[in-house]
From TrEMBL:
Signal peptide (UniProt feature, chain positions): none
Protein name per its UniProtKB record: SRPBCC domain-containing protein
Transmembrane segments: none
Organism: Streptomyces maoxianensis
Top-rank taxon: Bacteria
Pfam family, one: AHSA1
Family: Belongs to the AHA1 family.
InterPro entries attached to this UniProt entry: ASHA1/2-like_C, START-like_dom_sf
Any coiled-coil regions, as ranges: none
Domain spans labelled Activator of Hsp90 ATPase homologue 1/2-like C-terminal: 28-149
Length: 178
């Protein structure tokens, strides 16, 4: 991985509503990053299989997380596409992770658009323990996104051998952060 993923931040609102924020600067054009975060072909290379993805506001989305827990269970989430602006915003509101939003903007030296800024938000209701789990989980998935964009996508065999070690390491870092 050539890109270092910065730690995400979080805020907690009344009623146990958590907002997680990540800002990534990826050295890939928007069209490539969009394909990774908003297409059934790109999502499984770093996050989840999009069993259903209707690319429009109000469209259905079903995400099957490809990494399993210690008991071998995979998370399946059904929901709705709640924002869609091609190559700009993809937002899914799903059953487990709540609202997940990818906002993409081009950036580059002297006005070129060689890179992409990803502003990511995850809004969900849960405990502080779940907040830490999600911060670490998203951080790890963004490392996988950077690898996929660099030509090293996760394959079915990679997902089958996935272990939670890196996610736990990141979670420990988030516990010790103010």
């Amino acid at each position: 991985m050539t890109v270092v993923i910065p730690h995400g931040t979080s805020e907690t609102r009344d009623g146990g509503i958590h907002l997680l924020h990540f800002q990534l600067r990826l050295p890939h054009p928007v069209i490539r990053v969009w394909a990774a975060v908003a297409t059934p072909e790109g999502l499984p290379t770093w996050l989840a299989a999009a069993d259903v993805l209707e690319p429009r506001i109000g469209g259905a989305v079903t995400l099957l997380w490809l990494n399993a827990d210690a008991q071998g269970r995979r998370t399946v989430e059904q929901g709705t596409v709640t924002a869609w602006d091609v190559e700009g915003v993809a937002e899914y509101t799903v059953s487990v992770h709540g609202r997940i939003r990818f906002h993409l903007e081009p950036f580059g030296p002297r006005g070129s658009a060689d890179g992409t800024v990803v502003r990511f938000t995850n809004e969900f209701r849960g405990t502080d323990e779940l907040r830490l789990d999600y911060l670490a989980g998203w951080h790890h998935h963004f490392e996988l996104l950077a690898d996929a964009l660099d030509g090293h996508p996760m394959t079915a065999a990679d997902w089958a051998q996935w272990t939670p070690g890196r996610r736990q390491e990141l979670r420990d870092q988030y516990v010790s952060r103010p």
